Amino acid sequence: GKEGVGEKLRKSILEKAEELGYRYNSLPRNMLTGRNYTIGIVIPAKYIGETSFYWVFYLELLAVLKQTPYLGILEIISTDDEAACTLPSIVTANKIDGLIVLGQFSDPYLAALSANDLKCIFLDFYSDIGNIDCVAANNIIGSYDLTKLLIAAGHKQIGFIGSIDATTSILDRYIGFCKAMLEAGLPYESAIPDRAGRGIYIDIPLRPDIFTAYVCNNDRIAGMVIRQLERMSFRVPEDVSIVGFDNDDTMITGGLGITSLAVNVPLMCELAVDLLVKNIESDDYTPRGKSFIDGRVVVNQSIAPPAR
Question: Which of 38, 41, 98, 117 is the one with CA 20 to 30 A from 65?
Answer without folding.
Answer: 117
